[in-house]
Design a protein that fits this description.
heterodimer, A: alpha/beta, Rossmann fold, 2 domains, five-stranded parallel β-sheet, two-stranded antiparallel ribbon, 15 helices, 50% helix, 13% strand, B: Rossmann fold, two-stranded antiparallel sheet, 8 strands
Chain lengths: 290, 402
C-alpha cells in the first residue's frame, strides 16, 4: 500500500470512504514512520479511520481508550499480583532467588495495549483514542514511547519493539495538547463529509439504501447541520437515521414526511434542538432536497 | 525528459537541488513567521518527501506538507493559502505573512523549478511570483481572521501604555496578585482534605502488601483528582471602553502570571485569543503585542457575535465545570441584543459562574438601560462595578469562594 489511490481503494473495501487528503496522510504515515493525529468534532468518524486501516492492512487493532487518571499500569504493563502471591504461598520455604526469578518472569506479566502493540509479529494498528482526556503526565510518557519504541521494566530489563505499529491518535479538543506531541505527529483535521461523500458512506454502510435515497438523506443532513443546533449530528447519527428510514421501508423522503419527522430523533440529541425542529422546519429543509 | 534541449547535466541537477533546499528553508521560515511550530526534524522529512517524487505534483506536495507542518486546526486552515502564495505565486486572501522581501523574490517558485528541471528556461524569468509588498495593503483591507500577532496587523497601533499611569499599574498588579493568592491557598486546603480518599484501590493494596505475605495491612485508597479553578477573562476593547482597557490589560497580565489556569480573550467587533501574547513575562512587551490586536477599536462592539465565536470555537477547550468567566464590558451592544442573550445562556450552561464587571456602573445616575446589558443580566451571577482598584479588591472575597 503506497499510492494514495490504492490506499483510498483499500479503505473503501473495508467500509471507510476516505477523501484524497486522508489517503495522502496515511501514505505519509508509512513513508515517514510518524504517528497520525486526527482532530475533529465528535462523530465525524475519527475512530473509524483506525478500524478501517487495520482491516486494510489485515492486521490487529489495538485500542487504548484514554481517560483522566490513566496511568502506566493500565496503559503499558502490570505484574499479576494475585498470581505472584499465590506462587509465593505455594513455594513457601523454597529457595528465595528461584521464587523471585519465577514470579518476575513473562508468565506473570500482564500486557496492556501499549506493550502489546510493540510485541506483535505483524505491525498492528495502535489506536490511542481521545488522547485529550488523558493527563499531561501521560502525554509526556507517551511521547517518549512513540519516539523510542522501547519499554524498560525494572525487574525484567528493556523490551525493544519487534515491530513498529501504525499509530493513530484521536482528539476532540477538550484540552490543548502539548506542542511536542503535535510536532511528533502528522496532523489531519477530519471535517464533516460533503454531500457526495456522505451519500457514498451511507451506501457503503447501510445495505438496502439506494443511490437516490442516500443522496436525499445526505442533502437533508447537510441542511440540518447548517441550522443552529446545540449538538451538530455526526456521521454516526446519519447512519442511524439512514438505517431507521431503510428499516421503515422509506424509498423517497418526499413520500413520507411524517416518518421523516418522527425519525429525526436519531439526529437531534437535545431537547432544545428537538423542539426547534417543528414540522415546518423539516418541510422547509425537505423542500430544498431534490 | 524528451523535450527541447539536452538533459540537465550533473552540475545543473545539483544546482536545482540546492535551489530547492534554499527555497524550502525560506518556506520553513515563512511558516514559522505565521506561527507554525516547525523544527529541523520536519524540514528533514520535507526534504525527503520532495526527493521521493512529491515535487512533481504540486497538489500532492501541498497536501503532504499540510499534514506534516500543521499542528492544530488554525494551522490546518491557513496552510493552503500560505503554500499557494509561496510556491505557486497566488495571491493570499488571509492576512498571513509571506516573505515579501527582495530575497524571496529572487528565488524561483515551484513552477519555475519545474521548468528548470525540464527545459532550463533562461535566467530567472518566472521568478517574481511571490506577492510583493505593494500588494499587501489591499489584502489588509479585507476581513481577515485575527489570530496570533502577525506583523501585518501593525497598522493602526494603539499604545495602551499611555493610558495608565505608573502608580495604577503597580497597584493593579498587586491587587491581581492578592486575588490570585487568595484563590490558590483555598485550593491547596481542598487538596489536603481529600488526601484520605474514599474508595479502596484493591490492586494497589495487594501490591503494596506483598512484603507482608499478602496480608492487607496498609491500605491504598483512591481519591478523585480535583480540577483547579480556571479563570477566563473576556475584555471589551471597544472605543467606549478605551479609558479602562489599559488598566484592565495590566490586571489580566497579572492574573495570567499568578493563576495556574487562566485564559484571556479580547473583543470589539471580533474575538481574539490573547493568552499567548499575554504570557510574555515583560508587561510592556505583552501590551505591545496586544495593541497590535486591538486595531478594531472604535468600530462598535459586537458582544453577542464575539460570545458566539467564543462558545463555538473556544469554549469546549477553555471551559470546564470549575471555570469562572469574567466579562469586562460596558454592555453597549451595537449588534443584535437578542443574540447576546442567547449566547449568554449558552455560556452559563458551560461554566460555574459568570462575573460581569461594568466600569460605568458606578457613574452617577447610571442604570442598565442599554439593550445589550438588559439581555445579558439574567444570566450573570455577579454584576459589579470595576472602575476603581478599590472595587476590584472588593471582588476578592467573592472570587475566593468559587
Amino acid at each position: 500500500m503506497k499510492d494514495r489511490d490504492e490506499i483510498a481503494r483499500a479503505l473503501a473495501a473495508s467500509g471507510y470512504i476516505a477523501d484524497g487528503e486522508l489517503a495522502t496522510a496515511i501514505s505519509l504515515m508509512q513513508l515517514l514512520k510518524r504517528p497520525l493525529l486526527l482532530e475533529g468534532e465528535a462523530g465525524v468518524g475519527k475512530t473509524e479511520v483506525a478500524k478501517a486501516l487495520a482491516t486494510a492492512h489485515a492486521t490487529e487493532l489495538i485500542r487504548l481508550q484514554c481517560y483522566e487518571g490513566l496511568d502506566q499500569s493500565a496503559a503499558l504493563y502490570e505484574w499479576n499480583y494475585q498470581r505472584q502471591l499465590l506462587a509465593i504461598q505455594a513455594h513457601r520455604g523454597g529457595d528465595a532467588d528461584a521464587i523471585e526469578d519465577q514470579i518476575f518472569s513473562e508468565k506473570y506479566l500482564l500486557e496492556r495495549p501499549l506493550l502489546a502493540a510493540i510485541r506483535r509479529a505483524k505491525p498492528p494498528v495502535l489506536l490511542i483514542d481521545e488522547i485529550d482526556r488523558a493527563d499531561d503526565e501521560f502525554e509526556a510518557f507517551l511521547l517518549e514511547l512513540l519516539s523510542d519504541f522501547q519499554v524498560s521494566i525494572p525487574e525484567l530489563g528493556t523490551i525493544t519493539a519487534t515491530t513498529i505499529p501504525h499509530v493513530v491518535l484521536t482528539s476532540n479538543g477538550t484540552r490543548e495538547l502539548s506542542d511536542a506531541l503535535r510536532r511528533r505527529c502528522l496532523y489531519h483535521y477530519v471535517d464533516y463529509p460533503d454531500v457526495d461523500r456522505e451519500a457514498r458512506i451511507i451506501m457503503a454502510r447501510i445495505s438496502g439504501a439506494g443511490a437516490s435515497l442516500s443522496l436525499q438523506i445526505a442533502r437533508m443532513v447537510e441542511g440540518i447541520r447548517k441550522e443552529e443546533l446545540r449538538k451538530v449530528p455526526g456521521v454516526a447519527e446519519t447512519l442511524d437515521w439512514a438505517a431507521a428510514l431503510v428499516g421503515l421501508d422509506v424509498r423517497d423522503l418526499h413520500d413520507a414526511p411524517e416518518v421523516v419527522q418522527e425519525t429525526l430523533m436519531c439526529m437531534l440529541k437535545t431537547h432544545e434542538d428537538k423542539s426547534r425542529f417543528q414540522p415546518e422546519v423539516t418541510a422547509r429543509l425537505l423542500g430544498k432536497v431534490a | 525528459m524528451s523535450c527541447c534541449g539536452a538533459n540537465p547535466g550533473y552540475d545543473e541537477l545539483d544546482e536545482v537541488s540546492r535551489l530547492v533546499s534554499t527555497k524550502l528553508a525560506a518556506f520553513l521560515k515563512t511558516l514559522r513567521d505565521n506561527g507554525f511550530a516547525v523544527g529541523l526534524h520536519e524540514g528533514r522529512d520535507a526534504a525527503s518527501l520532495m526527493a521521493a517524487g512529491y515535487i512533481e505534483r504540486p497538489g500532492l506536495l501541498r497536501s503532504a506538507f499540510k499534514h506534516l507542518f500543521s499542528a492544530r486546526k488554525s494551522d490546518w486552515e491557513k496552510f493552503d493559502g500560505i503554500f499557494d502564495a509561496f510556491w505557486l505565486g497566488k495571491r493570499v486572501k488571509s492576512r498571513s505573512i509571506t516573505m515579501g522581501s527582495t530575497k524571496a523574490a529572487n528565488s524561483p517558485s515551484l513552477k519555475s523549478l519545474q521548468d528548470n528541471r525540464s527545459e532550463r528556461s533562461g535566467g530567472e524569468a518566472a521568478t517574481d511570483q511571490i506577492p510583493s509588498t505593494e500588494d499587501a495593503p489591499e489584502d489588509r483591507a479585507g476581513e481577515g481572521r485575527m489570530e496570533g500577532a502577525s506583523r501585518a496587523d501593525n497598522l493602526s497601533e494603539i499604545d495602551f501604555r499611555k493610558m495608565a499611569d505608573p502608580e495604577q499599574i503597580a497597584e493593579a498588579h498587586t491587587v491581581a496578585a492578592r486575588l490570585a493568592k487568595a484563590m490558590r491557598s483555598r485550593l491547596t486546603r481542598r487538596d489536603l482534605a481529600r488526601r484520605r480518599g474514599y474508595r479502596l484501590d484493591l490492586r494497589r493494596t495487594i501490591h503494596s502488601n506483598i512484603s507482608h505475605g499478602g496480608v492487607p495491612i496498609s491500605l491504598v485508597k483512591r481519591q478523585r483528582k480535583e480540577k483547579p479553578l480556571r479563570l477566563v477573562v473576556l475584555l471589551d476593547a471597544s472605543g467606549s471602553m478605551s479609558m479602562y482597557t489599559g488598566v484592565f490589560l495590566r490586571f489580566i497580565h497579572g492574573v495570567l502570571d499568578e493563576f495556574r489556569e487562566a485564559e484571556a480573550f479580547l473583543f470589539h467587533t471580533r474575538l481574539a485569543y490573547v493568552s499567548d501574547a499575554m504570557k510574555e513575562r515583560d508587561a510592556g512587551r505583552a501590551l505591545d503585542r496586544l495593541s497590535i490586536m486591538a486595531q478594531g477599536a472604535g468600530g462598535g462592539t459586537k458582544i453577542g457575535e464575539s460570545l458566539q465565536t467564543f462558545n463555538r470555537w473556544h469554549a469546549a477547550r477553555v471551559l470546564h465545570a470549575r471555570s469562572c468567566v469574567m466579562i469586562v464590558s460596558d454592555g453597549y451592544e451595537t449588534g443584535d441584543a437578542a443574540l447576546l442573550g442567547r449566547e449568554m445562556a449558552a455560556l452559563g450552561r458551560r461554566c460555574r459562574r459568570i462575573v460581569w464587571l461594568n466600569p460605568m456602573m458606578a457613574w452617577d445616575g447610571y442604570t442598565p438601560e442599554a439593550a445589550g446589558i438588559k439581555a445579558a443580566l439574567p444570566h450573570v451571577d455577579l454584576y459589579a462595578p470595576a472602575n476603581t482598584l478599590k472595587s476590584l479588591t472588593t471582588l476578592e472575597p467573592y472570587l475566593a469562594k468559587l
